[in-house]
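As a warm-up, study this chain.
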Amino acid sequence: MDFYYHPGSAPCRAVIMLARTLGVDINKILVNTMEREQYKPEFVKINPQHCVPTLVDDGFTLWESRAILIYLVEKYGKDDSLYPNDPQQRAAINQRLFFDMGTLFQSFFEAIYPQMLNKPADPAAIKKVETALQLLDTFLEGQQYVAGDSMSVADISILATISTFEVIDYDLSPYPNLLRWYENAKEHTPGWEENWEGILLIKKFVEANKAK
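Now compare it with the structure written out below.
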C-alpha cells in the first residue's frame, strides 16, 4: 500500500500507529505540505481534494484518516477487537471518531495551529478547546479507553490528536481522566515512537518560527 503523508499531521500519524498495531506494511511517501506539494498535478490526479493522509491499496484510493482507519481495521484486522462487530460497540467508537474529527481536532486546528505559526490565540477558540478536552475527560470517567472496555481505533485517532497539543506544551493537568488515559495509551500503542518523532518535528518548526 502507498501511503501519502506528512509526519506533522496528526491524522497521518494515527494511520501509521494503526498500521503498526495491525502489522500492516505501508509504503510511506512524503508529501511536503509546507512546500505545497499536495497541489502538484500528479498528486491531485490521485486525490482531487489534495489532502493527506491518502492511501492507495491495490488501485483503491481513500483519504480522510478516520475512513482510512476503519478501512484498514475492517480489511486487515486479525479479529474485531479494535472495531467490534457489535452494532452498539461500533456506534460508540464511531461517535468518538466523529467527535475527534468535528470537535476535538477541529478545536485544535482553530486555536492551537495559529499559535504554532506565532499568531495570537483567539479566546473563543481556546474556550472550544477547553470544552472539547473537558468532554473527553468526561468520556473517560471510570474507564480506561475512550469507547468501551478495550482499545479501539478511536483511541488511536484521539491519541494522535492529543499528543499534538504537546507541541505548545499545553497543560492537560485539569483533565485527570484524560491524563491517565494518555499515559497508558503512550505506553501501549504500537507506533508511538513514530508518532512522537512527528511531534518533535513540529516542535522544532514552532521553535524556529518563534525565533524569527
